[in-house]
Write a structure and sequence with these properties.
The protein has 95 residues and is mainly alpha-helical. Helices cover 42% and strands 0% of the residues. It has four helices and no strands.
């Protein structure tokens, strides 16, 4: 993200930290709720979940809630765990 804002600012490194802070603040209050699920994705995930254990990976900061009703696209699913936790529980060989 820093590289993108550095390029957008014309190389002005003094603006980067402030730009990132503004971006994250807007995302936390507005942008997070502007996202929509692509058509067919809930159905595809429901079908896959019948045969496979599904995992969620995200680059979102932890301050955003996980597993909330506003972000859940599969019914009756538990909140996603952290990647490290999932890796600890993942089988060591492929099934």
């Amino acid at each position: 993200m820093q590289d993108v804002f550095l390029a957008l600012s014309g190389g002005n490194a003094d603006l980067v930290a402030d730009a990132i802070a503004h971006y994250r603040d807007r995302y936390a209050h507005i942008g997070l709720f502007e996202n929509v699920v692509y058509p067919g994705i809930p159905e595809a995930l429901t079908m896959l979940a019948q045969s496979y254990k599904l995992y969620v990976c995200t680059s979102k900061p932890r301050r955003f809630p996980s597993g909330s009703s506003s972000t859940s696209i599969l019914p009756n699913t538990s909140p996603p765990s952290t990647a490290a936790s999932l890796m600890e529980r993942a089988p060591t060989n492929a099934s």
